[in-house]
Amino acid sequence: MNYGEIKKCDIANGEGVRVALFVSGCRHHCKGCFNSMTWDFNYGKKFTEETEEEILEALKPNYIDGLSLLGGEPFEPENQEVLVKLLRKVKERYPEKNIWCYSGYLFDEELKKESRARCEYTDEMLSMLDVLVDGRFEEDKKNITLLFRGSENQRLIDVKKSLEQGQVVEWKPAIKRGL
């Protein structure tokens, strides 16, 4: 797997202060994508054990609330094996930190059912997520006032509750915004 960038102090891609990993590779090719260079699976740098350790170290400070996975597309099958290994280590080392993931794939229609995204790692990856922002970016539904997402069709999903209840459960922010 390749990645485009690691942000070690990100406040835009999930609640609180986060470490954000932008993976490479995406087949959605959403019109107006803010990160279209990461569509190419070969973009950026190779994800190595050193990269993994860099992320784990960046998560160490108490002020870091968690990890966010973005892209590209974290749920492309080519990326899931590497990300599951990373998430296992994050959960083991930092059980108090939360994990967010941004995906163009829909939770209930593509990640939980047969689709091009599903592979032997999908269910385990979902089980380690706290919040999933799902749905492709739709330029005609772009809304800059939305919390942690770019277009009105995208959903903020509480993954743990959704898996427990067998239906999509919306994630509720801890802090209310003034917009």
From TrEMBL:
Record carries keyword Membrane: no
Keyword terms of this UniProt record: 4Fe-4S, Iron, Iron-sulfur, Metal-binding, Oxidoreductase, S-adenosyl-L-methionine
Pfam families: Fer4_12
Enzyme Commission no: 1.97.1.-
Cofactor(s) required, per the database record: [4Fe-4S] cluster
Species this chain originates from: [Ruminococcus] torques
Keyword Endoplasmic reticulum: no
InterPro entries registered for this protein in UniProt: Aldolase_TIM, NrdG, Organic_radical-activating, Radical_activat_CS, rSAM, rSAM_sf
Protein name as it appears in the record: Anaerobic ribonucleoside-triphosphate reductase-activating protein
Chemical reaction(s) catalysed: glycyl-[protein] + reduced [flavodoxin] + S-adenosyl-L-methionine = glycin-2-yl radical-[protein] + semiquinone [flavodoxin] + 5'-deoxyadenosine + L-methionine + H(+)
